[in-house]
Design goal:
The strands form 2 sheets. This protein has a 4-stranded antiparallel sheet with strand order 1-2-6-5, sandwiched between helices. The protein is globular. A hairpin with a 2-residue loop joins strand 3 and strand 4. Helix 1 packs across helix 5 and helix 2 crosses helix 5. Helices cover about 35% and strands about 20% of the residues. It has 7 helices and 6 strands; from the N terminus they run H-H-E-H-H-E-E-E-H-E-H-E-H. The protein has about 180 residues and is an alpha+beta fold.
């Protein structure tokens, strides 16, 4: 499967079949995510992976909106975070106007790699941004010096999802 095939195959899945995801599969995802570039190779992204059924049930209650229902039957939840005030900083001072935003950028790059690897491995994912960072921090003992980013559901789909339409290039590109 080519990278193009993988990207076109990947979908955000909102209904999972309850099949577990192995520790080895999850480690493979994170190892691949580590290959993404990061500011000055600081590698500040962190992954807090929940697989225990009891803890999964608790972690799902920390998700907002309809996300607890959308993650029913999921094999794992990956809470992604990054060490703050390191990326985009030298000696504690921001290197440019992006400042701590570069931590978000690096985490996003790594998460994208993780999502693509999951699709290649026939694992399905859903990126969740509506969540209670503080409830997750408390439940999973995530250090205070980490900024919690997205939660990524990983599992096996019950049904296929349709590809939403993409904007025309003329709406998003300016050639100069």
């Amino acid at each position: 499967m080519t990278l193009n095939d993988i990207a076109l195959h990947r979908r955000s899945i909102r209904k999972y079949n309850g099949t577990s995801v192995s520790r080895e599969e999850l480690e493979t995802l994170v190892r691949f995510a580590q290959e993404a570039p990061s500011w000055k190779n600081q590698q500040t992204s962190r992954y807090h992976i929940v697989t225990s059924p009891a803890l999964l049930a608790q972690a799902r209650t920390c998700l907002g909106g309809s996300n607890p229902q959308k993650t029913e039957g999921v094999g794992a939840l990956i809470v992604t975070s990054f060490k703050h005030n390191i990326v985009g900083h030298t000696h504690g001072e921001p290197d440019n106007e992006g400042g701590n935003g570069w931590g978000w950028y690096d985490l996003g790059l790594q998460n994208a790699y993780l999502l693509l690897k999951a699709a290649e491995m026939d694992l399905d994912t859903l990126v969740i941004g509506i969540r209670s960072a503080e409830q997750l921090r408390s439940l999973l003992a995530i250090p205070e010096d980490e900024t919690i980013g997205a939660v990524i559901a990983v599992g096996h789909r019950v049904e296929d999802a349709q590809r939403p339409p993409r904007k025309e290039l003329s709406e998003i590109v300016q050639f100069i």
